[in-house]
TrEMBL record:
The keyword DNA repair does not apply. This is Peptidylprolyl isomerase. One of its GO terms (molecular function) is peptidyl-prolyl cis-trans isomerase activity. The lineage of its organism: Bacteria, Pseudomonadati, Bacteroidota, Bacteroidia, Bacteroidales. Residues 176-274, 277-372 form the PpiC domain. PANTHER family: CHAPERONE SURA. It comes from the Bacteria. It comes from Candidatus Caccoplasma merdipullorum. Keywords: Isomerase, Rotamase, Signal. Residues 1-22 form the signal peptide.
Length: 453
């Protein structure tokens, strides 16, 4: 989904860049004015091309549908200004950094991105920042409008009872999985070697021998920031793990390098780039200890012994997880995994880590897999694991008893969508709009535009 969002933004950027070029080379024209905001012909034309390229559905005449979509967004932005709805700079900058990295990965290099858009990177970053900020504010405004909308169990039952039978959604097979993880032992000598390398990098920076950013590009094992010379973008304290945040926010001199910082991800050195109030932009270099094959085999053997003891009734899987698992996200929940996409414990097979999906494929509920090695996506390192299949729910038509939360979400989203639709209709009547001659003969989705001649 993130990749699709980035692709859509890529085309949106192209639209704005092309619109800017059009203004430089030809006389553009204003086709809509919404309050104090304008919509240009060139923006509509480019958006039309992009929607055709992406095969997006266009409802009716594109020269009616597209500018109206743009106008609706401006209603939300205007209301957000009145209500002082903002988004954090750090949130925007992190999103911009991710998207620029996406462009670099897909187009080939920073230089090719600049050539592709016909703009130097700092101008492209400014353009992206404005667009991402507007998108984020619109989304935040919509969330604010519907934040108090709730549905009751009776609302859910009533909706389900009147839903046409052919509209009841099909729920693919879902599973609940419990996991136990062990981190293979890392010898102290390996950790000492990593710290020695980081101390060497610090000396090279402090002696003026090498730029910190160059070392980050060459050696950091955090791929997201390494491409940017180790820069994280402006970030708030709460968005980092405590050990990293404490070290980053303690820095005051951009010429200095922090002491070595240990986190769950590995070992870091950090350099201050800039501080803005309660946000800070830093560079860092991350090195991760790597377990040897021998230590992985020892962890596998230990888990195999634990599995046998569970099967023989010495203790339960849940007791073993609580006492021995090194996965802090599940240890205190009897190992039960939570789907980050839905916030509940059920997963479709495609939502599970590949190694876990493979391990439970042939298990019956209550059975425990043999031990295996998997990559912990959060930490980016190999761990040993066993999993227990708690439940398997076959694919079926949704019903209240098994799928209450899913149906509740459908009802809640519909209620919120209806509210937003009514809000738009009310707001448009109180917003003065001018539409250029030749662009007014439309069957708009919202027919209550307060159009001034």
């Amino acid at each position: 989904m993130y990749k699709l969002k980035c692709i859509s933004l890529l085309f949106a950027v192209l639209a704005v860049v092309s619109a800017a070029k059009a203004q430089d080379n030809v006389i553009d024209e204003v086709v809509w004015v919404v309050g104090d905001e304008i919509i240009l012909r060139s923006q509509v034309e480019e958006q039309y091309k992009n929607m055709q390229y992406e095969k997006q559905k266009i409802e009716g005449d594109p020269y009616c549908f597209i500018p109206e979509q743009m106008a609706v967004n401006k209603l939300f932005l205007h209301q957000a200004g009145l209500d002082s709805i903002t988004v954090s700079d750090s949130q925007v900058m992190q999103d911009v950094d991710r998207r620029i990295n996406f462009f670099i990965d897909n187009i080939g290099s920073k230089e090719k991105v600049e050539e592709y858009f016909g703009k130097p990177m700092h101008e492209l970053r400014d353009l992206l920042t404005e667009m991402v900020r507007d998108q984020s504010i619109v989304q935040e405004m919509q969330r604010e409008l519907v934040k108090d909308i709730k549905v009751t169990p009776s609302d859910v039952r009533r909706y389900y009872d009147i839903m046409p039978k052919d509209s009841v959604p099909f729920v693919p097979m879902q599973v609940e999985v419990q996991v136990m993880k062990l981190h293979p032992f890392i010898p102290q000598s390996d950790i000492d070697n990593i710290k020695a390398r980081l101390r060497e990098y610090t000396d090279r920076v402090m002696n003026g021998e090498t730029e910190f950013s160059t070392l980050a590009i060459l050696y950091s094992e955090d791929p997201g920031s390494a491409r940017q010379g180790g820069e994280t973008g402006f970030t708030g304290r709460a968005e980092w793990v405590p050990e990293f945040a404490d070290a980053a926010f303690a820095l005051n001199d951009p010429k200095k390098v922090s002491k070595i910082v240990e986190t769950e991800f590995g070992y870091h050195i950090i350099q201050l780039v800039e501080r803005r109030g309660d946000r800070v932009n830093v560079r860092h270099i991350l090195l991760k200890p790597k377990a040897s094959d021998t230590e992985k085999e020892k962890s596998i053997a230990k888990l195999d012994s634990i599995r046998n003891d569970i099967i023989n009734g010495e203790f339960t899987f849940e007791e073993a997880v609580t006492a021995l698992s090194q996965d802090k996200d599940t240890r205190n929940n009897h190992g039960l995994m939570v789907n980050p996409r839905t916030g509940i414990s059920r997963f479709e097979m495609a939502d599970l880590p590949q190694e876990i999906a493979k391990a439970i494929a042939n298990l019956q509920p209550g059975e425990i897999s043999k031990p295996f090695i998997m990559v912990d996506q959060k930490m980016g390192r190999d761990v040993a694991a066993i999993v227990k299949l708690k439940t398997r729910v076959p694919g079926h038509k949704a019903n209240i008893s098994d799928d209450y939360q899913m149906i509740k979400s459908i009802v809640e989203n519909k209620k919120k969508g209806d509210f937003i639709e009514e809000w738009i209709k009310t707001k448009q009547k109180n917003t003065f709009v001018r539409i250029k001659d030749g662009w007014q003969n439309c069957e708009f989705k919202y027919d209550g535009w307060n159009i001034k001649q």
